[in-house]
Amino acid sequence: MSELEPERFRPLRRGTLGEPYLYLAETTSTQDVLRDGDFPHGTVCVTEHQTAGRGRSGRRWDDAPATALLFSVLLRPSAGAPLPQLSLVAGLAVAAAIEQRADVRARV
After folding, report:
1. What contacts 24+ positions apart, CB below 8 Å, involve 62-65?
2. Which of 18, 49, 50, 108 has a 20 to 30 A CA-CA distance from 59?
C-alpha cells in the first residue's frame, strides 16, 4: 500500500483541504483531473507519477515514478484574491514545511 493512499492520508488530514481526496497511481496530470471534474473547493488530487506534468506557464516537466510529491489542490478563491502569486507562495510554503518536518531538501 502506498503512503499516499486515502486510508493512510485521511487520519493525518487537518483543516478544510483534502476532502475529497483523489489518489491515482499514475495520471497525465493532477491538474487535468481536477480541471475535468466538478469538484468542490479543497479537493486534492495526488499521484505517484505524472506522464504529462506541467509547471508554471505551461512548462512541461518529467518525474521518475515515486520520487516527487505530485499533487494539485483545487481552490475557488473569492474575487480579488492575489491569484498570480498564489501557486508560487503555496509551493514555497509546502517546500518549507517538508524541509522542517522531514529534514530533507525540497525544491519548487
Report:
1. 65/26
2. 18
Let me know: does 25 contact 48? Beta carbons within 8 Å. yes
Helix (H, G, I), strand (E, B) or coil at 13: coil
Phi, psi dihedrals of residue 19, rounded to the nearest 5°: -140, 115
Gap between the Cα atoms of 25 and 5, Å rounded: 9
Burial class (CB in 10 A: 0-12, 13-18, 19+), 22: buried
Tens-place pLDDT, residues 36-59: 889 999 999 999 999 998 776 778
Q: Which of 100, 39, 106, 105 is nearest to 73 (CA)?
A: 39
pTM: 0.79
Compute the distance between CA of residue 91 and CA of residue 97 in angstroms, rounded to an integer: 10
Rg of the chain over Cα atoms, rounded to whole angstroms, equals 14
Cell numbers given for 101 = 518536518
